[in-house]
Design a protein that fits this description.
The complex is a heterodimer of chains A (614) and B (520). With 614 residues, chain A is of the alpha/beta class. Helix content of chain A is 39%, strand content 13%. Classes of the chains: A alpha/beta (614), B mainly alpha (520).
Chain lengths: 614, 520
């Protein structure tokens, strides 16, 4: 082969390489630049490049929505479902990380132009917008070309010849994909928010424990920084306001909460400069410094606010007169009259009070009137003695619903609250314990195994005998005076290995070894469904509290229970000090309990009750 | 500018085009300019160190050359003899001075910090630790210029009079990073004559560069994290994993070093400059001596010509030989000097690898077996005569290869370990707690030996083996390919370019690991 022909051959091979490269990227399309038709996976492309993928995703669904959240990741927790409930609109959250204000403006303009039905925009501002310069248009995260204004040719070339690494990563992630989010699929495409299913079921207790686990995500800044993009940011906000006014669209501007850790990087002077500049162009809600700022538990990390924290924010924005919020929680600033950082700090300090409670929980099982020398059974007398003991020591038994109200609405709890619980649903709970509870007016929660309710003699449909469980008649009694709440101990995930004919046996709620997340989720959801049906049959309200059989559970268990409406779960962890926190439903997850048996002494009970964490 | 970057490719392409555009007599100027630009991308300070070395060795080269050319002008034979002796002494003094200077700079810049630290550890003197910038390729250019000076003083080479040309010889950019250590007589003519454009050079060069870059990316850099985990955490795994790690390090090092050499030799061939070969399928060696003739050949040759022979023929060793003949049996006496000198040479190889006792131990390990090998030769011959089994060539070849590789792998415990103690601990761990049964798929997976990696490295090694076997039989693989039908060539070129683009040049997920021998 002559030299020239050889060169031609090399160039042809190179050309073919480029063709294969482009075809490969087009087919796998990790950035959703070409519609992601062959290997569709929205959550992946949104994670890799939310700016581009969200615009592509929403472009053919604009008629489904009439309101949009715009902002950086500080806007991630502005959940459309919450906004919809307050406003009656259909929100989509268009946030993307690393947002700069210039892009916010372009995005708002594009949405207003493309969707004639827009009623409301919610512009969420963090510190990012006041700090980031405009993203370069040739970068892979510069956005979809109709929004960014980039030429179609340059956009196509950029993504067709993006590093093949991205496409290969997508394919390899696809093999590792599971039901729960991983680092590569953190978005919920349907509403544009982060998939926080896992972080939203992490048990939260004392601040100390939280920082022990996540302290690394809350660094303290070593020196104060300047905000370098304040005037372009304010200018962009002003232009968004003008555009909205022109189209008759309502604009809500919110300065999102900032953690103490992030705040430590800026002086009040810098913040005031930002507040003042914004105030020249718009009204806005300022949540940057509130009592929550100083409690890391309300944040996923230094720059990301919890979904539940933003629920409180939106509650405040849309129901501002509700008395449950102190004056320092969010300040509405009229155009031209900003509220300074110093004032916010003062308000926060004044409003910040006790917002946590320590709640010890006692766990009982079976009772007998007369143990007759059998040392493993707790006598009715001992139970009555223990109940009197804790009343005399100044403890106030409460119901689980009281804890939920405290968390959701800040409804105060009595001093020294304590929770009395009984597992398995034995008949003796009614015959022995209930009279004591009634006499002393002590509320309690019983966790019944669904498939055993009403079984007085045999284990399920076998001939193995069991301790009798209560049934319809007893439940009627419980329902009548409301002192006892019957809750779930699963329908049938507390199986006795020796009595079951199949294998493997669900002796607890955790997945089998090697069980896929999907299979496990299906099994657990079916169990929850059956439990609801049984409760309905017995006239009980659907359970929203569950005690884990044998105390075992996994993250995915908590995720599925939360999805099914469960608000509170209990383990058998005696070491955990339960600290419940206003506004954080996670503080009701995986609560610890002490098992009280015949061998438990008064001293042990009192020692357990007196433990505090915060 | 890293030689495995896209920037280097662009730079190279520009240099090649300019090179052949210029008239022949000026082509070397392009090489000089490219070398200058290349070196300056690594910073000005390193360039200054290098400039000093170049100026000094250039000046001393001229001086030595002048001394070599002086003809004794004495009237009588005795006078001429005396004059000759005086000249010789002077030459030797000049040569010694410049060599000392040259090597002192290397020792100062490369080793002083670790020596001060070592002294401090022993005597607790709280000395300030010097921190010098280590200029790019210092070991290579010090060795190369030293060889030049010795050759000039011996009259084997004429000194280069043009300073810029001399600078090009010292700083020719493809060889700068990690060798090979070229000889002036071989390299200079090729650099200065202005080579004709030849498609064969381009074809060979391109293939060789592709081979080198893929060897590095697909094997060496893929194995590097795994090897790192084994060496840094060998205690957490059964001993046999340490051995596996050392064996994989052999593979990594070979693909890293020879891959780099392939890349730079290929790049050099584009200019029609054929540099010295540095490797000849070293892992096919049947003895350690054979290995050292195939591994890092340019260093081995350097050591042979400029350390082994001068030492062995020196007066001290001649006296030593005499003494040995008196006290030792004749067969042993004959081999005593080569044995001792070989051991010294390998100590030097160990020191060349870097500071630290583990490198010295690496030199001693090799020196010990090499010296023992010299003593063993006559014994082996006798054994072969007696036992027919030992005359079966194939069998002995396989045995030899296995034995050699075992010695090389154990040697790599020392050359890769962070300290002598950790190398010894790792070796002890291998022998005392091999724990074959404790090795599981999960453990290897945890170390990073995943299925995709295994497939990638496995396939790449299959190609490596096939190419090596062909080369062992004397086939020039790039030429073999260019003689295939165009369809085959096209398919191979497409595949190689696809891999190079996907895995290296367009792959943001690939962070090339610095060449192990870069800046040594």
């Amino acid at each position: 082969m002559s030299g020239k022909r050889w060169l031609g051959m090399v160039l042809a091979a190179l050309l073919l390489v480029f063709v294969v490269w482009a075809l490969f990227n087009d087919a796998v399309d990790p950035f959703k630049a070409f519609g992601d038709r062959v290997v569709p996976w929205d959550s992946y492309s949104l994670t890799l490049n939310p700016r581009n993928s969200k615009a592509v995703y929403i472009s053919d669904k604009l008629d489904e929505f009439d309101a949009y959240v715009i902002g950086s990741s500080s806007a991630a927790s502005f959940l459309p479902e919450v906004l919809d409930a307050y406003t009656g609109h259909h929100y989509y959250n268009m946030f993307h990380y690393g947002a700069d204000s210039a892009y916010d403006l372009r995005l708002a303009a594009w949405l207003l132009e493309q969707d004639p039905d827009v009623k409301q925009l919610c512009l969420v501002l963090g510190l990012n917008e006041a700090n980031l310069p405009e993203t370069k248009s040739d970068a892979l995260d510069s956005g979809w070309y109709p929004v960014s204004g980039e030429s179609r040719a340059s956009y196509w070339a950029k993504f067709l010849f993006a590093s093949p690494h991205y496409s290969m990563e997508k394919l390899s992630s696809l093999r590792q994909d599971t039901l729960l989010p991983q680092a590569f699929d953190v978005f919920v495409p349907e509403d544009g928010t982060y998939d926080k299913r896992v972080r939203d079921v992490e048990p939260i207790g004392s601040l100390e424990d939280y920082l022990a686990l996540h302290g690394g995500d809350f660094p303290t800044a070593e020196s104060a920084e300047a905000l370098t993009n304040i005037s372009p940011c304010a200018e962009a906000v002003g232009q968004i306001r003008a555009l909205c006014a022109e189209k008759g669209v309502e604009l809500l501007v919110v300065l999102a909460p900032v953690s103490e850790s992030q705040l430590s990087g800026y002086t009040d002077e810098t913040l005031n400069e930002y507040y003042t500049a914004l105030s020249q162009v718009t009204d806005y809600w300022n949540f940057q410094i509130t009592p929550l700022t100083f409690d890391a538990r309300y944040f996923y990390d230094d720059s990301h606010t919890r979904n539940d924290t933003i629920r409180m924010v939106l509650d405040r924005v849309f129901a501002p007169d509700d008395e449950k919020w102190p004056a320092g929680f969010g300040v509405y600033c009229q155009q031209g009259s900003p509220v300074s950082a110093e004032t916010l700090r003062t308000l926060a300090a004044e409003a910040g009070g006790k917002h946590t409670e320590t709640v010890p929980i006692l766990m009982y099982h079976h009772f007998v009137a007369d143990p007759g020398g059998e040392s493993t059974l707790l006598s009715t007398e001992a139970f009555a003695h223990q109940m009197r003991l804790l009343l005399e020591a100044g403890y106030h038994p409460v119901a689980v619903q009281d804890l939920i109200d405290y968390v959701d609405r800040g409804t105060p709890l009595p001093e020294r609250p304590v929770l009395i619980t009984m597992d398995d649903g034995y008949l003796s709970n009614y015959t022995e314990a209930y009279p004591v509870l009634r006499e002393l007016h002590i509320p309690a929660t019983i966790f019944a195994i669904g498939c055993s309710i009403g079984h007085e003699k045999y284990y399920k449909d076998t001939e193995f005998t069991l301790t009798p469980h209560f049934g319809q008649a007893e439940i009627q009694e419980f329902l009548r005076d409301g002192l006892v709440s019957v809750q779930s101990h699963t329908y049938d995930m507390h199986q006795e290995e020796a009595y079951e004919s199949h294998s493997p046996v669900r002796s607890s709620i955790v997945p089998f070894e090697e069980e896929s997340q999907e299979d496990y989720a299906a099994a657990l959801r079916a169990d929850i469904q059956q439990q609801n049906e049984v409760f309905q049959r017995f006239g009980l309200p659907a359970p929203n509290v569950l005690a884990f059989p044998r105390g075992y559970h996994e993250t995915i268990t908590d995720v599925i229970l939360k999805e099914a409406g469960y608000r509170c779960t209990l383990t058998t962890d005696e070491s955990r000090v339960n600290t419940i926190v206003q506004g954080l439903p996670q503080s009701l997850i995986d609560l610890g309990r002490i098992n009280v048996g015949p061998e438990t002494t008064d001293e042990q009970i009192l020692a357990y009750l007196s433990r505090t964490a915060d | 500018m890293s030689i495995n970057s896209l920037a280097f490719l662009g730079f190279l392409l520009a240099a090649v085009v300019l090179y052949y555009l210029l008239p022949k007599q000026h082509r070397w100027v392009i090489l000089f300019a490219a070398s200058l630009v290349f070196y300056l991308t690594y910073g000005l300070r390193a360039g200054l160190y290098f400039l000093v070395t170049i100026v000094l060795t250039y000046g001393f080269g001229l001086w030595l050359d002048r001394l070599s050319k002086i003809r004794p002008a004495g009237q009588t034979r005795e006078e001429r003899q005396a004059e000759k002796q005086a000249l010789k002494r002077k030459k030797r003094a000049v040569l010694t001075a410049i060599l000392l200077l040259n090597f002192a700079s290397l020792l100062l810049l490369k080793y002083s910090a670790s020596w001060v630290v070592a002294l401090d550890q022993v005597f607790h003197l709280s000395l300030p630790v010097p921190s010098f910038l280590l200029p790019l390729g210092i070991s290579f250019y010090v060795f190369q210029t030293s060889a030049y000076l010795i050759d000039v003083s011996k009259g084997k080479a004429a000194a280069e009079r043009n300073f810029l040309r001399y600078a090009l010889f010292a700083a020719y950019f493809p060889q700068l990073v990690q060798g090979p250590i070229n000889r002036y007589q071989d390299l200079a003519p090729q650099l200065f004559r202005g080579n004709d454009f030849d498609w064969a050079n381009i074809q060979n060069g391109v293939w060789r560069m592709l081979y080198g870059i893929l060897k590095k990316a697909l094997i060496a850099d893929a194995l590097a994290p795994l090897v790192q985990s084994v060496y840094s955490g060998f205690y957490d795994y059964p001993g046999v994993v340490s051995f596996l790690g050392a064996a994989l390090y052999c593979l990594q090092l070979y693909c890293d070093f020879s891959g780099g050499i392939d890349l730079v030799c290929g790049a050099s061939e584009l200019f029609g400059v054929h540099m010295m070969e540095n490797f000849r399928q070293p892992y096919f060696s049947t003895s350690l001596a054979d290995f050292w003739r195939r591994w890092h050949i340019s260093l081995g040759e350097w050591m042979k010509d400029y350390l082994f022979y001068p030492l062995a023929l020196s007066k001290s060793f001649q006296r030593f030989s005499k003494w040995c003949r008196k006290v030792l049996p004749p067969e042993l006496a004959k081999r005593a000097t080569p044995c001792v000198v070989t051991f010294i040479v390998f100590l030097a190889v160990g020191v060349w690898q870097g500071p630290g006792l583990s490198n010295l131990a690496y030199g001693m390990w090799n020196g010990f077996w090499m010296s023992l090998g010299l003593l063993w030769v006559p014994k082996a011959a006798r054994l072969r005569e007696r036992y027919a089994l030992l005359r079966k060539d194939r069998l002995m070849q396989v045995f030899g290869i296995l034995r050699t590789n075992l010695l090389v792998i154990v040697g790599r415990y020392f050359s890769r370990a962070t300290s002598l103690m950790s190398a010894l601990r790792m070796l002890k761990h291998t022998l005392v707690r091999p724990g074959f049964s404790a090795v599981s798929a999960e453990m290897l997976h945890g170390l990073g030996l995943t299925m995709p990696l295994l497939i990638q490295v496995g396939l790449a090694c299959a190609v490596l083996l096939a190419v090596s076997l062909a080369q062992e039989r004397g086939v020039r693989v790039s030429r073999w390919i260019t003689e295939r039908p165009w369809g085959v060539q096209f398919a191979l070129m497409f595949l190689a370019l696809l891999l190079a683009v996907f895995c290296v040049y367009a792959n943001v997920g690939y962070t090339p690991i610095a060449y192990v021998y870069e800046n040594i």
